[in-house]
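Sequence in, structure out. Go.
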Amino acid sequence: MEKTSETFTNKRIPISIRKEVETALSYFPDLKNVPIEFKFKEKLERSFMQAQPEFSTVFNKPKRRRYYIFISSSFNIEGEKFTIDTVPKDVLIGWIGHELGHIMDYLHRGSLNLIWFGIKYIFVGKHIREAERAADVFAVNHGMGDYILETKNFILNHTSLSETYKNRIKRLYLSPEDILQLTQELAPSEKISS
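Output:
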């Protein structure tokens, strides 16, 4: 089990990714008092990272819930293995920012709405697209556009990944063009400060 640090209130962060997590968290002042544990898992289904509320706190008020961001220490995409150590730091920060965007989305949902959201995410394919794009929008609106763009470009420009996989990413997430447009639409005075 990896050692964790607790430099942010109510945060448990593996030491190996502390800098990246703290950088991403700095863009989300609304999450300062929200309990979040960043936790490595051996394998996650269909993703590199996954944000979710702790089930026992789902019926708490949104800011009193506890959340997890599960991180796969290594993951395979079409036979190619990626690890935390081989992913560029800015890409990792962008990925974490995207997951924090999910938590921001969860904070706007009551308990029953959050449960319904989870059921739709699991069983309704088109809902995945809405949820993933909403997380990207939250991250970009919090000033993380450059990091989210790095993450998308890392995936979409990775030559060994198939067009089928890249098309899935294009279908489910904001495109680099969408991210640039959102970033440009945010005037400096409108960006949420850290």
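Check: The radius of gyration is 16 Å. The helical segments are 18-25, 89-107, 111-123, 125-156, 163-172, 176-185.
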